[in-house]
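Subgroup meeting minutes
Present: P.N., E.W., G.H.
Scribe: E.W.

1. P.N. recapped why we're keeping a running log of single-chain structure predictions: easier to compare across weeks, and new members can see raw inputs and outputs side by side.
2. G.H. added today's entry (353 aa).
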Amino acid sequence: MNDELIPQEIHESPEAIRATVEETRPEAAAAADAMRKRKPGRIFLIGNGTSLYSSMAASYTGRALAKAEDAFVTAWPAGDFRYFMPELHSSDVVVGMSASGEFRDVLAVFQELRGRVLCVGVTHIPGSSITRLADHVLFSRGGPSRMPVMTKTYESTLTAVHLLLLEFFGADASYYEDLAASAGRCEKAVAAAEACLPSIVPMLSKMEHGFYFGAGCAYASALEAALKMKEMAILHSEGSETWEMASGPATRVSSDTFCVGLETGGATDQDTVSGLRHAKQWGAPTLEVAPRSSLGGWYFPVEAARYQSFSSLALVPPLALLAYRVARARGATPDEPQWRDRYASQGMTHILG
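Output recorded in log:
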């Protein structure tokens, strides 16, 4: 297999965002109309792994738009929701994210709730199982993906859920314009990272641990970016919320650890920078992914979104590219990852393509 397929898909992410904004909005509008008719008190976004982190990132759009009397939007791991389901009202809405359309916990939830609450599926694959169980389906666009490590599918499925929430809460045109502009921000961020990688990869490929952190939707981005480093480079990586970094990963940070701070251009950036500054003092190489550099040193420029909840769409792709390049430097083969058999043994064959 061509070992450059993953970078190719990362570079296709901006077009996947554009295509989803243009083609998925009618589906989002139809689903949102059905949701509004029920007058829900709660909207649950469920998924596992990348789909969970997408759910978390999208939930910030719900937080930004909802008034006190509006539906509360919350993200849950699909397995946790399946086995520890709260008591649901018939007006509640469950949005299940599964890029493959085959994730067993999402399907089990939809099967159990069929006819009881409104279920909206978000997937990349027409004809998948989720399309037969959901009341409404949103298809992310951007063309097929052939890789077990999701890159452009993350961007497109996340964009689809943003669209659903914008439609549901009746966001004004500026939100849609800024969501569409995420494609350009993503494109610039990936190009800028590509230019920086030769100076960063040799050192990071020798590290034993990686810690990613940020606040708000940058926290959701940190979780996804750390997952990409684990999946591609087989390098221990964790994502943390900015203030949790101080009381958890900080105990382990040293010269064999790299730290990545993700920033959105908001008020919380100062605390993320403070965490990076401490990590630097403790001997860790640091990388700032932000609209502007506050520390000097390694830095991926990522233009700030007008609405912070869209920040993940530009923050994650350059870090996915970093993970791929580190993987290749470490001798890993992310296009044919060594964990395929482990996923298959757990019945998670839907992830493997």
